[in-house]
Design goal:
The structure holds 2 protein chains of 2 kinds.
Chain A lengths: L1 H23 L7 H26 L4 H24 L5 H29 L6 H29 L12 H21 L3 H19 L7 H23 L2 H24 L4 H6 L24 H9 L3 E6 L1 H5 L3 H13 L3 E6 L9 H8 L7 E3 H4 L8 E5 L29 E6 L19 E5 L2 H16 L1
Parallel strand pairs in A: 1-2, 1-4, 2-3, 4-5, 5-6
Chain B lengths: L2 H21 L7 H11 L3 H11 L3 H31 L8 H7 L23
Helix pairs in contact in B: 2-4, 3-4
The chains are: A alpha/beta, B mainly alpha.
Chain lengths: 470, 127
Amino acid sequence: MDTFTTNIQLVYVLAAACFVVGLHLMNSPATARRGNQVSVAGMAIAVIVTLVLLIHDGSVTGVGWTVLIVGALLGSVAGLYSARTIQMTAMPQLVSMFNAVGGGAAALVAVYEYIHDESSPGGVLGTTSVFTVLDVIIGSVTFTGSLIAAGKLQGIVTGQPVIFRGGRVLNAALAVIALGTGAFMFTTASLPALLILVLAALAFGVMMVLPIGGADMPVVISLLNAFTGTAVAMAGFVIGNWALIVAGALVGASGGILTKLMADAMNRSLANIIVGGFGTGDTAVAAAVSGDAQVRSIAADDAAIQLAYASKVIIVPGYGLAAAQAQHGVAELAALLESRGIEVSYAIHPVAGRMPGHMNVLLAEANVPYPQLKEMDEINPEFARADVALVIGANDVTNPAARRAGTAISGMPILDVDQAKSIIVIKRSMGSGYAGIDNELYVNPKTSMYFADAKKALAEMTAAVKTLVA
Amino acid sequence: MSTALVTDLTIFVLALLVGIEVIGKVPATLHTPLMSAANSIHGIVLVGALLIGVTAHNAVGYVLAFIAAFFAAANVVGGYAVTERMLKMFRRKAPAPPAPAANGQAPGGTAPDEPPVPAQPVPGARS
């Protein structure tokens, strides 16, 4: 029996190693697929060896097997179905849902373990209980928080920050209740206390995400991803399983890094984002655009002339592109321009879209080769050489106001779109972006506005270019 | 602190550091697949769900085990499938982009009036 357990542990170490190698191979698009496959292999090993352990142990009842197998099969079908059918524009929702179920499952492991321990004569073990409490709190917060985030992304819950009087007090109260109950549970085994803990953590998850607005979603999803990882690692402590600890720590690290990258790309602290809303206190600064500034709009034919006779075009996609499902349209226009020998590249701001790297996936779906997708630091020096910068549904990340002090977005790293020789902005209206301030780029004498839905605008421009060069 | 706990904590901290080191190198292009891959990795909680099934002998236990197994399986299977689907889309086209680009443009019926010029025009010649 002892050798058996040791061997099982060794296999778990092998699975954990697969996860590390798999993530390492994600360093390059060329090897990323192999990385995912290595990771799948690790997971298969871990699950199979666990089944071997259960069979060997022999204490699982018939009902227990049925419950586990049916649950896992139904879950697999649900997961597979959503993975196959989801649109790439809806990827943030799906990732959020996976965060929710992962966090939920981790919380359930701890809840079960606690109930199980509590009903045994010896009561709970002190050390187990610390991780149990943490697992329940983090897992439950992730569960409801991710559900609300997915709801916001899907449009079921409003994307606007939901802020009401007393919200912060309520949050603080919930946190105090959760932590207080948790502390109580370290010393005393109590089922009602567990129930209070779960409910308080679930409510806290809802309250944490509700005040956060749509454009902050890349940060929120990353943060919830880190939470899920941490919850799974805590579940690993609870049941004493290394594979869970390692996998959870890896995911926690991944989510943590992405959270920091996203927050930096908005020049906002995590606390600021969680507390919610943009421009709290300095709303009066908005009037940066002087009243006599003229906005110039442009027709498809004129835009086509600018594009067709350029030698270098940089496309700046934003959430508007995703919302309009215009990724194929932009790829078609770019391919047309390239066939005329025009150098086309894409400038991707780190927080463009609704999750980290969202734009890259959309453009990859439209067959844009990934070497054309340039990160902010790489592309910014190139704007000065670009004849046309084509901005599609991006707003705050192009606003030169970020370079000055005293605006809601001051200090946020932006794409230097205004350095291009001419700028075409496709946008549905003059409405301001998430930060709620006017975009000075739009009144730049070099800028022409094309007011239309991104998909329609791109189709019109493509047609105009074709007519022009035919 | 028990020895087992110290071991667990050591593993946790080291894995965290390995994760930071490995994931810090992933390019922004792959951040969405990275997150979805990480998502499927935390589906390892399925192992946790299976292990609690060992001790489940009453209704509450079965219900919890069922939900946990459902959630975790959806997480792991869906996560891997969607990551694979995304990664399949990332391609580096051969360094001669005009050919595939021209194929893509067939429906328009407009032959380019000149063969694709190697991308070396005088920068800034037109504005």
